[in-house]
Design goal:
Mean pLDDT: 82
Helix content: over 70%
Distance between the termini: 37 Å
Structural class: mainly alpha
Largest sheet: none
Strand content: under 5%
Oligomer: single chain
Length: about 350
């Protein structure tokens, strides 16, 4: 919860940071927050651990928005969806690398060594991108005021919300992302629990299935981006992703312990290509809709809806299961939610 809260706050607070220092320096600042947060999370004191989690959350906003700014400026128009999708493929790729490297290091050395390694990766990245800083941040505004009054102001919230109010197309792409995001968060939060508790898999087998999904997601996100560029319409591919996500989630709702293992694996692989591979497309379409000079506010507005869905999706799913309706009903409701993305998508003008 603290990491999600920190991420939400950073989305709202880092717009002045981007204007003053530029995208690359903001990315470096965010990664530095993440490195410090990782180191604090290894502490034995609960208060320090909680502070570390909040810093890790604050780390997430600047790199995400900075990456969007860089791609919006430098990605070729004919390959924009692919570039944004490759950017988003870094999320599951990082999860895979962390899952393979850090537990092994913790087992061979200690948990402290693993945390230091994670922090070191962030700091090495800060150093690696420094040569690019002068070129990428050439358009920054050195006169942008800084200080706590600039960051802690309702204007940082008012601007993104104002974009949602004034731009119907932004509301629609944001709502579509929220519908798809709810489905994505449910799959990642509950799939392992479902296959263990309901389909009677062993926990290591369920963990292996989850790792396979992350790997497929690394490949699926650039694939969808490539297809969108070839078709010339990210909206059309997002619509296909919504249909595929709804159908695979509904199939998961119908699964039983009698289904063979290969069928669940195939369903998970097919599902992850649609359930979790659409993020780059949504970011690319949001950037396309952004008015000149308003990219930060536009992306923040869309991300606010997406983060809300990431919280609300698993919460609603858990309430349905806890109420006694079972996993099947919960996955069925999730399928309807993802299919609902088709309504706002159908009202957005394609490329």
């Amino acid at each position: 919860a603290l990491i999600t809260t920190g991420s939400l706050l950073s989305q709202l607070l880092c717009m002045p940071l981007l204007r003053r220092f530029g995208a690359m320096r903001s990315l470096q600042i965010g990664l530095a927050f993440g490195a410090v947060g990782a180191l604090l999370s290894a502490a034995q004191q609960p208060a320090v651990l909680l502070a570390g989690c909040l810093l890790v959350g604050l780390c997430l906003g600047p790199p995400s928005l900075a990456g969007t700014h860089v791609l919006q400026r430098f990605a070729p128009a004919g390959h924009r969806s692919l570039m944004f999708s490759i950017k988003q493929a870094g999320v599951p790729l990082g999860s895979i690398l962390a899952g393979l490297m850090l537990p092994l290091l913790a087992q061979k050395q200690s948990i402290e060594h693993a945390v230091v390694a994670a922090a070191a990766i962030a700091l090495l990245t800060v150093a690696a991108v420094q040569p690019l800083r002068r070129r990428v941040d050439s358009g920054r505004d050195p006169m942008q005021a800084m200080g706590w009054r600039v960051f802690v102001t309702l204007d940082n919230l008012r601007r993104p919300l104002g974009m949602l109010v004034s731009m119907p197309a932004l509301r629609r792409i944001g709502a579509a992302g929220a519908c798809l995001g709810a489905g994505q968060s449910v799959w990642f939060a509950f799939l392992v629990t479902y296959v263990v508790a309901e389909l009677h898999w062993t926990l290591p087998a369920a963990g292996a299935l989850f790792a396979l999904m992350q790997l497929v997601s690394v490949l699926g996100r650039p694939l969808l981006g490539y297809v969108a560029d070839r078709m010339g319409s990210g909206i059309a591919v997002l619509q296909c992703a919504a249909v595929g996500s709804g159908l695979t989630t509904f199939a998961l709702a119908c699964s039983t312990p009698s289904w063979p293992t290969w069928s669940i694996v195939a369903l998970a692989v097919a599902g992850v290509c649609t359930v979790s591979s659409w993020n780059g497309l949504q970011f690319a379409e949001t950037a396309r809709l952004a008015p000149a000079g308003k990219l930060s506010e536009t992306m923040t507005a869309a991300n606010l809806l997406l983060l809300a869905a990431y919280v609300a999706g698993p919460a609603l799913f858990g309430l349905i299961v806890a109420a006694g309706s079972g996993f099947g009903m919960a996955f069925g409701v999730t399928a309807l939610c993802t299919l609902s993305a088709l309504l706002p998508l159908s009202r957005i003008k394609a490329n």
